[in-house]
Amino acid sequence: MTSTIFPDAFLSPLAIDEAVNRALAEDFGRAGDITSVATVPADLAGRAVVAARQSGVVSGLPLLETAFRRLDANVRLTPHVRDGAAVAAGTALMTVEGNARALLGAERTALNFVTHLSGIATGTAAFVRLVAGTKARVCCTRKTTPGLRALQKYAVRCGGGFNHRFGLDDAVLIKDNHIAVAGGVAPVLARARAAVGHVVRIEIEVDTLEQLREVLDAGGADVVLLDNMDPPTLTKAVGLVAGRLVTEASGNITHATAAAVAATGVDYLSSGAITHSPVNLDVGLDIEL
Predict the structure, then answer these.
(1) Active site includes 236?
(2) Do residues 232 and 263 both lie within one domain?
(3) Is 47 known to be catalytic?
(4) Per-residue exposure over 152-187, b if at least 16 CB sit within 10 Å of its own CB, e if not
(5) pTM: predicted TM-score of the whole model, two decimal places
(6) pLDDT tens digits for 95-154?
(7) Which side of the chain, N or C, has fewer Cβ within a 10 Å radius?
(8) Does 248 participate in catalysis according to the annotation?
(9) Is 143 assigned a catalytic role?
(10) Which domain holds residue 160?
């Protein structure tokens, strides 16, 4: 795999292999690419150029590369940009040279990954631009497509964002239902702190300034999630915290509201829309024989 196409972002090679293998198996089904087998000579070579058809931020080239290599181990790939690059419409992303059947068979799988992940990276980059000049960092949530979380969170990093927890197992996030079941803010924080190890961070969600005061009085939290608060309330919340906890704003944060939320002084703003409602970036592949 060509390391030059990776940015400094988190993505396991195992996640790439699993996703590509699953996608190709879904597409090839029981009989393979019957159109290409019926119409394209087995030994015909071809050359293809993958290009952006609109401006945006690129993500997913390692999966594109892996898809083509699965069908042609001798394929020659020449990357022209790396993941995380901002490109203009018409920019060539990669040139692929190899068996024509393999190029045709892998085309849709490769493009599905690149268009989807580039859409996430592009949307994230728009958020990042909107909060420029503040200390706020943009992060994603667990509102991801089942089976694609690691890839979608990688795309967020390609767009200049940061990752929230990857799953239920890498941090404690106490939400309103946990508080209700445990009997209140103080009891739930006490139980969490007594149960987890010293390197596990504890975050708790609050909806009101009164709840926030309870959190500050109880102690035990590292991060407070300020849920669905308007900018004036967020400003008051940041003032109450006074640097004692990391602050995260969440809840219906959009491109229209991001700048105002970031200006309140929160450390992070998280958006589920980055991953659950991306607009794919238009990327195409043209074959030259």
Answers:
(1) no
(2) yes
(3) no
(4) bbbbbbbbbbebbbeeeeebbbbeeeebeebeebbe
(5) 0.94
(6) 999 999 999 999 999 999 999 999 999 999 999 999 999 999 999 999 999 999 999 999
(7) C
(8) no
(9) yes
(10) 131-276
